[in-house]
Amino acid sequence: MSEPQHDLAGRLALITGGAHRIGASIARILHAAGMDLMIHYRSSRTAAESLQQGLESQRPDSVRLMQADLLQNTALPELIEACQAWRGRLDLLVNNASTFYATPVTTVTEAQWDDLMGTNLKAPFFLARAAAPLLKASGGAIINLLDIHADRPKKGYPVYSMAKAGNAMLVKSLARELGPEVRVNGVAPGAILWPEEGLSAAARETILSRTTLERTGTPEDIARTVLFLARDADYISGQIIAVDGGRSVQH
After folding, report:
1. pTM, whole model, 2 decimals?
2. Taking Cα atoms as reference points, which of 30, 13, 15, 17 lies closest to residue 223?
3. First to last CA, the chain
4. Of the listed 41, 101, 157, 160, which one is catalytic?
5. What is the pLDDT of residues 81-117, one digit of tens each?
6. Where do the domains of the chain lie, and which CATH numbers do they carry?
7. Separation CA 161–CA 190 (nearest Å)
8. 160 an active-site residue?
9. I need a surface site. Which of 165, 171, 216, 230 has the fewest CB within 10 A?
10. Is 239 exposed, middle or buried, given 0-12, 13-18 or 19+ CB atoms closer than 10 A?
C-alpha cells in the first residue's frame, strides 16, 4: 500500500519568474495543491497581477507578488524577508527565472556573460543561501529549473549552456550542503515551449525528430514534475529529472 500524499495546504512556495510561461504553470499547479505563493517577477507586472487575480478568485489571500531584479544581490534576501513577514515560513523555493539567448563565441560580450551567469547560476545560489534558514526550519525543498543543454551544449549558446551546467552542479552541491533538513532537486525541460523569438517549421521538425515521443511537451508536464518533487519525493535529493520526451536517450 502506497504512502499517503503530503498535504501542502498552508505551506508557502516562492517561485522566481513566476508570472508567465512555465513559471505560471508551476504557480497554478502548486496553488491547486493547496500552497500559498510568493510570485516573483522582474518586468511582467501585468501578467503577474492577472495570475494573482485568477488564483485569488479561487482562494483569497493566497498569493503575493514581489518585484525584483535578481541580478541585484541585495534584492535576494528581501524576497525571503517578504515570505517571513507574510507567512512566517517558507516550504519551497522554485528557482525558475532565467535568461536565454544566443551568444556566439566571436561576438559574446561581458555584459551578456554577466546576465546569463547571473540569472541562471549566481542568483539561484544566493537566493538558496538566503532561504536556507527558513527551509531548514520547515523541512522544505529547493527545485531548480535547468535545461537538457546543461548536459549537451546547444550550438550558438555556449554561455547559457555553461550557466545551466553550473546550475546542475548547484543542485548536487546544495543537496549535500543543506541536507538532511532540505531536499534539493532539479527539473530539466526539453522541447516544451518554443523560444519567444520563434523557430522555423523545419527547425521545429528537426528538434521533435530527436525525441522518442516525437512531440512537444507542455508547461504542465514541467509543473507536475515540480509538484511531484515537492510533495511526493521525500527520499529524492540531489537529482535532476529530464522532462524531454526521450531526447536524452536519442543519438
Report:
1. 0.91
2. 30
3. 39
4. 160
5. 999 999 999 999 999 999 999 999 999 999 999 999 9
6. 12-246 (3.40.50.720)
7. 13
8. yes
9. 216
10. middle
